[in-house]
Amino acid sequence: MNATQEELKLKLQQAIADAFGDEYQDVDPVLATTSNPKFGDYQANVALSLSKKMGQPAKAIAGAIVDKLEISDICEPPEIAGPGFINLRLRTSYLESQLQAIQTDPRLGIPTTKNPQREIVDFSSPNIAKEMHVGHLRSTIIGDCIARILEFRGHEVLRLNHVGDWGTQFGMLISYLREVHPEALTTANALDIGDLVNFYRQAKQRFDADPKFQEIARQEVVKLQAGAEDTLYAWKLLCEQSRKEFQIIYDLLDVKLTERGESFYNSFLAEVVEDLAELGLLVEDQGAKCVFLDGFTNRDGTAQPLIVQKSDGGYNYATTDLAALRYRIKQDNAQRIIYVTDTGQSNHFAQVLQVAGKAGWIPENVELVHVPFGLVLGEDGKKFKTRSGDTVRLRDLLDEAVDRVELDLEIRLKEDGREESTEFKQKVAEVVGISAVKYADLSQNRTSKYSFSYDKMLSLKGNTAPYMLYAYVRTQGISREGNIDLAELAGDTKIILQEETELTLAKHLLQLDEIISEVERDLLPNRLCDYLYQLSDKFNKFYENCPVLKSELPVRTSRLVLCNLTARTLKLGLDLLGIRVLERM
Ligand code: ARG
Q1: What CA–CA distance (Å, rounded) separates 547 from 494?
Q2: 126 alpha carbon to ligand 1 midpoint, in Å?
Q3: Ligand 1: residues within 6 Å at CB?
Q4: pLDDT per residue over 32-77, tens digit each?
Q5: Does the predicted TM-score (pTM) go above 0.85?
Q6: How far apart are CA 278 and CA 272, in angstroms?
Q7: How do residues 497-537 score in pLDDT, each as one tens digit?
Q8: CA–CA separation, 500 and 506 (whole Å)
Q9: Nearest ligand 1 atom, CA 321
Q10: What are the E-state strand segments in 14-93?
């Protein structure tokens, strides 16, 4: 909660206790920002809920609270509206002093958390030898944003890439490569990931059609699990190859991850099953070892099990996740583990968490959260594919965004008669292109699916990255036009808020704190996008209505500081989304 809101909440609680006695001191004042500025800035609805409990009219209760409320330094005299809402309006002098106080603060007045935690964000997590697809892109972008926000708030964040680097797919792939491309298993860089993915597809076809090949592939998996030298070496090469390709994407996106793939947990898998058996949770069902679940039923109504060891003795995705969560809680001391995957895996996580809960592996102070997101669709609303029907390669997708921006930029420069260096153009194209893809993803409520549209995400109008980046550039243009280094403005400039648009902007600037806390709690980055979009809108209105460079001192300096605070808020907010700003574009 933002400092102002927090402060008001405390004062309200105090007033309630003063009015009705100490037994009321923990009552929630039900304080929220108002939806309509007509009613002030905040509204406390506590009188309505107390009214029932106390058997008194809400209006009278509101009156009694307001009588005891000591907030005259923060708000105008409170108003009681409707059945008993307490409406609060911030004083201009309060806003001025708040803004004045954050001028030199690199964190713009946003405190670090009072209880820093060790948090794990498990995101991106593509599968070796398979192509990284748009689902992984979404996980990468959302996960990175969540990690950035938690880091900014002062949590200790472990960004884990739980890559799929183990399993039966390697048996197929290695066996197939032994036949058709043996060098790939002994020489580094003999293949690129595109080839690898093709070989994987062919291997799978072969596997599905040829029982003899199935047997060979199974043997290869056994060899891998037993640690046979040649198979292990081949596996390592394949992983290395994929890793390099993934890194290209991470570099393009400016995303940092620590790889700790599924194979890392191999030596802990047997223990998971043993411990479940010891706890009496394990049931053998048609040769497979399972734990039966509550609330998950098969079509015929029978209880559904979570398999943790297959009838052939192999472990699976769920076993690995159980081992991983134990390791993360015990060894990494994680207090919160956040999994960012598509909604398709919601059942998987609900089941794994239920089993871990039943086994007593999740201590009370540890929270495990699945952060699901919807599918990425093509512009036609169907599954996202290339024209020829193939899965889209992420690199191509990102490159295309950059290329399109470069093309647009050339046209724009020509129209404006501007000359720019190749370096400049490339930088702008890269930042705008990548930002557009990220922003398009983050600005949607992640729980819904969205259509991937270059035209929409690259538009200069609307809630898009180019629009936001322009808003920032405009603030920088003011300093260029006035030949003023905004960063050099005195740190204690007196802020003077006179016009309505100025006040509106000021209030919005002071709400970033609240938004960041919200995203930290609900893990919904689109809230931050909305905030920034509104900020640029409010800034534009201010800029249209309030002359900055042409106004007289001391208003001029105050307005310049407002411009600078807007610029810094945009920059910080975008940075938390993983988006870099440009000084010019
Ligand atoms: N590799 C998985 C996939 O591509 C995602 C892994 C997510 N993390 C986890 N701990 N299961 O679907």
Answers
A1: 17
A2: 7
A3: 122, 125-127, 162, 164, 321, 324, 339, 341
A4: 989 888 889 999 999 998 998 889 999 999 999 999 999 999 999 9
A5: yes
A6: 10
A7: 999 999 999 999 999 999 999 999 999 999 999 999 999 99
A8: 10
A9: 10
A10: 31-33, 42-44, 79-81, 85-88
